[in-house]
Specification:
Blueprint lengths: L5 E6 L7 H13 L5 E5 L6 H4 L3 H4 L6 H7 L5 E4 L2 E5 L7 H4 L2 H8 L5 E6 L6 H7 L2 E6 L3 H14 L4 E6 L6 H14 L5 E2 L7 H9 L12 H14 L1
Parallel strand pairs: 1-5, 1-6, 2-4, 2-5, 6-7, 7-8
Antiparallel strand pairs: 3-4
């Protein structure tokens, strides 16, 4: 049976680059287009409910992604209208259960329009995330380690699935500008959207603290950030 859903992977091997926040804001952007979105995370920090202002509700969830994979049943949290969330509740998942993960995704793909996976490396699942994904978005810092990580990922999976690279939390230093220029040169002849660097911003920090998304404010100072997210939504929809 052919999948209904588009499966989007938000991936970077380095932690702290904003994968979870970017995954949530992209998911909400798609949900606002009257699409049904399932957001999954394998990040043990499980920050997405806090970003959504749903920390209290998340604490009541006891059966996460591993339960869905094992039994076909579990808890979901409605973060926003049309946007449903399932976290990985344990720190790992067995090899046996990982073999059932593809089946779980295919079942869910008949129920929703988009599946977004906020991917942190998890034993037995990391390669599956890449295999399952139709499209990949890479949040990144503009530094040596994270930039090299992008090129390593592309060597591993090819460029076909890579749809967008999103430099995040930029301070507009000369070194960051040099790494951005390197990315521009590397991808100028490819159909990969390289967004303008998203600057480290107190306005973004205040949104996070308030449990609101980029789409729930009309603050003019955030217009450039919204514009970059819109570019990514266009290539993953």
């Amino acid at each position: 049976m052919q999948s209904k859903a588009v499966k989007i992977l938000i991936k970077n091997q380095k932690g702290g680059v904003g994968k979870s926040l970017i995954a949530f804001w992209l998911a909400h952007g798609l949900a606002l287009k009257n699409k049904t979105v399932l957001l999954l995370t394998s990040d043990s920090q499980d920050n997405i409910p806090a970003f959504a202002g749903k920390s209290k509700e998340a604490k009541e969830m006891t059966k996460g992604l591993e339960s869905w994979v094992k039994t076909g049943e579990g808890d979901t949290l409605e973060l926003r209208e049309n946007l449903h969330y399932i976290p990985l509740k344990s720190l790992s998942i067995s090899k046996e259960d990982s073999l059932k993960f593809t089946n779980f995704i295919e079942i869910m793909a008949q129920r929703v329009d988009y599946i977004i996976i906020d991917a942190s490396p998890v034993l037995e699942l990391d390669d599956l995330f890449v295999e399952i994904a139709d499209k990949i978005v890479i949040p990144t810092f503009l530094d040596e380690v994270t930039t090299q990580g992008i090129f390593n990922l592309i060597k591993k999976v090819g460029v076909t699935k890579i749809k967008a690279i999103m430099p995040n939390r930029s301070h507009s230093t000369k070194l960051e500008n040099d790494y951005y220029t390197e990315l521009q040169s590397a991808f100028e002849d490819m159909s990969v959207v390289l967004t303008c660097p998203i600057k480290h911003s107190s306005a973004v920090a205040k949104l996070i603290d308030a449990g609101r998304t980029l789409w729930e404010t009309k603050q003019k100072s955030l217009d450039p950030v919204r514009s970059e997210f819109q570019k990514v939504l266009e290539v993953v929809k």
